[in-house]
């Protein structure tokens, strides 16, 4: 092999393509799971249909897929509890996004500082390690007592839930920085700020993006708790309110909407990662 | 001139004992010379280089570059590491120009200088490639170009070709000699290969472990001969080469004296 070979140099003509082989894999090794997942989804739906069709479960516990679909269309058309579906969705999106922006703009710098500075680490480690394993429902009453029942307490609750994963991953990003890379930059004349800007930050970026993805996921799963606080709008509110009237079909609609948004955001974050850190996992 | 005087380094090992990694090493690196430190692993070669680069303070002794004591790392000492330290998110040209960016050189000038240096190491057509698209040898060439970009007074190289296959390694040695002949940079080069040391060094210092010491020093002219005649075979088959090879081999493999024998300094 010559030193000058570029990737793609020895591509074979497609016409006389030889039999392609590869090493026997172990574990998953990138095997395709898409069709299997799709089949599973279809099976689950079919099972749901059959179980409700033959009344194996009382409709109060499990509505039929048709009922859920009808209810969804009704909510799209008429709204729920005096607000349109879009008003519910946008109320939830606004809370999640405000919280994500606050959590990122506090968590990323603080996490980086904690990875770099003894004092930052020493001061903030204890409170963060103390609060972050707590379930948000546990400090929800405190949020209400301290901050009232307006938007602030909801957004602060979501922010607290998202902050820890973002902050911890930024720290992990700094810790994973190889010392040789730092030394190389120093011997190229990097100043402190240049070192941070050109080396530390981009090196930590993959971890930071992972932390954001996890943080937003945690945000969605905390949404219902946040909207327990005297809300009149929001998907979480819709679910809680429907459950009081045993409107199981509306609960299902709400769950479906949250799942769809959470999935879409997670997917969007992956695209963002592929675009911002294309080098991740290479060399 | 780079002067190392009675440099000693003590580390604390994990069990609390003290490791004497470098013992009173003295070394001069003059203009236009390649000083090669040769020795088995653990004899303090990297320790010496790290101290010169400014990554590590000395326990005792001093290091001066053109009369000035060396302190923290800086662009006057270019470093090439064994493990490549290119930035995976930057193109080859941007990697080469990193030091120029730190120095505030405008983008156009950086690009020109990077292309010039890539030409020097035979990678002119790879300016816009990314590090993960290059082979190990090519990445080390980018590393050399990057270290040269800030026009350092000395190039420090810690087993830069140690991870390469032997064929690529030979190409890289010749490339390094070309770069040296053209730029006239002085070079401090670390290796554990006797042949590499003999081929590259205008001076070879042999080191031995526990404590890390310079035990012998040889002044050679094979590299100048190669730069002038470009005949590898003539050099490798020269009787002096074989003689020195054997002499150094016996030094390197000598069961190192536990007793504090006075240092044997040849030539
Ligand atoms: N940071 C360190 N802490 C403790 N001991 C070290 C450290 N770095 C190197 N040493 C020890 O110092 C000695 C010399 O190391 P080094 O300079 O890396 O040798 P070489 O590069 O010649 O292989 C070795 O015994 C090594 O274990
Ligand atoms: Mg070493």
**CATH superfamily membership of the largest domain in chain B:** P-loop containing nucleotide triphosphate hydrolases
**Which percent range describes the beta-strand content of chain B?**
15-25%
CATH architectural name of the largest domain in chain B: 3-Layer(aba) Sandwich
Radius of gyration of chain A: 25 Å
Q: How many domains of chain B?
A: 2
Helical fraction of chain B equals 25-40%
CATH superfamily of the domain at 79-276 in chain A: MetI-like
What structural class do the secondary elements of chain B suggest?
Answer: alpha/beta
Give the strand line-up of the largest sheet of chain B. 6-7-8-3-9-10
CATH architecture of the domain at 79-276 in chain A: Orthogonal Bundle
The CATH topology of the domain at 79-276 in chain A, please?
Answer: MetI-like fold
The CATH topology of the largest domain in chain B comes to Rossmann fold
Count helical runs of chain A.
Answer: 10
> Which radius of gyration of chain B do the C-alpha atoms yield?
19 Å
Number of strands of chain A: 0
Question: In CATH's first tier, which class of the domain at 79-276 in chain A applies?
Answer: Mainly Alpha
**How would you describe the oligomerization state of the chains in this entry?**
heterodimer
**Major beta sheet summary of chain B:** 6 strands, mixed
Principal-axis shape of chain B equals: globular
Helix-strand pattern of chain B: EEEHEEEHHHHEHEHEEHHH
Order of helices and strands of chain A: HHHHHHHHHH
Organism (chain A): Azospirillum lipoferum
InterPro entries (chain A): MetI-like, MetI-like_sf
Keywords (chain A): Cell membrane, Membrane, Transmembrane, Transmembrane helix, Transport
GO biological process, one term (chain A): cellular response to sulfur starvation
């Amino acid at each position: 092999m010559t030193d000058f070979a570029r990737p793609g140099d020895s591509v074979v003509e497609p016409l006389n393509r030889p039999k392609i082989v590869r090493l026997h894999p172990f574990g998953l090794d990138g095997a395709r799971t898409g069709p299997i997942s799709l089949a599973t989804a279809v099976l689950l739906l079919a099972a749901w249909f059959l179980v409700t069709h033959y009344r194996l479960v009382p409709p109060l516990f499990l509505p039929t897929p048709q009922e859920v679909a009808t209810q969804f269309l009704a909510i799209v058309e008429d709204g729920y509890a005096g607000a349109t579906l879009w008003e519910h969705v946008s109320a939830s999106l606004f809370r999640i996004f405000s919280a994500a922006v606050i959590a990122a703009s506090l968590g990323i710098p603080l996490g980086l500082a904690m990875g770099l500075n003894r004092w930052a680490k020493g001061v903030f480690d204890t409170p963060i390690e103390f609060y972050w394993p707590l379930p948000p429902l546990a400090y929800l009453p405190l949020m209400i007592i301290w901050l009232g029942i307006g938007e602030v307490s909801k957004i602060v609750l979501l922010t607290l839930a998202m902050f820890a994963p973002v902050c911890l991953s930024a720290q992990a990003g700094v810790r994973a920085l190889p010392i040789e890379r730092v030394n190389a930059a120093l011997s190229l004349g990097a100043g402190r700020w240049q070192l941070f800007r050109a080396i530390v930050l981009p090196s930590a970026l993959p971890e930071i993006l992972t932390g954001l993805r996890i943080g937003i996921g945690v945000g969605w799963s905390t949404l219902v708790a946040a909207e327990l606080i005297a809300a009149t709008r929001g998907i979480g509110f819709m679910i809680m309110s429907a459950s009081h009237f045993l409107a199981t079909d509306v609960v299902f609609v709400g769950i479906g909407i949250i799942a769809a948004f959470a999935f879409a955001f997670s997917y969007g974050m992956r695209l963002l990662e592929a675009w911002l850190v294309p080098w991740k996992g290479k060399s | 001139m780079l002067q190392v005087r009675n440099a000693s380094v003590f580390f604390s090992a994990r069990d609390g004992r003290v490791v004497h990694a470098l013992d009173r090493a003295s070394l001069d690196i003059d203009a236009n010379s390649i000083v090669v430190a040769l020795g088995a692993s653990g004899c303090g070669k990297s320790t010496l280089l790290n101290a010169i680069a400014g990554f590590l303070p000395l326990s005792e002794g001093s290091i001066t570059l053109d009369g000035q004591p060396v302190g923290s790392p800086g662009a006057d000492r270019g470093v090439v590491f064994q493990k490549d330290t290119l930035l995976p998110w930057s193109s080859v040209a941007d990697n080469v120009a990193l030091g120029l960016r730190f120095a505030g050189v405008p983008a156009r000038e950086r690009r020109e200088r990077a292309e010039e240096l890539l030409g020097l190491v035979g990678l002119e057509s790879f300016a816009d490639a990314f590090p993960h698209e290059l082979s190990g040898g090519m990445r080390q060439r980018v590393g050399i170009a990057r270290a040269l970009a800030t026009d350092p007074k000395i190039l420090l190289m810690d087993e830069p070709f140690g991870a390469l296959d032997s064929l690529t390694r030979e190409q890289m040695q010749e490339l390094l000699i070309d770069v040296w002949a053209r730029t006239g940079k002085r070079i401090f080069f670390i290796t554990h290969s006797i042949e590499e040391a003999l081929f590259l060094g205008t001076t070879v210092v042999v080191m031995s472990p526990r404590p890390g010491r310079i035990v012998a020093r040889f002044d050679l002219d094979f590299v100048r001969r190669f730069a002038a005649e470009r005949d590898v075979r003539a050099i490798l088959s020269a009787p002096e080469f074989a003689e020195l090879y054997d002499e150094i081999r016996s030094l390197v493999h000598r069961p190192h004296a536990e007793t504090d024998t006075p240092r044997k300094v040849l030539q």
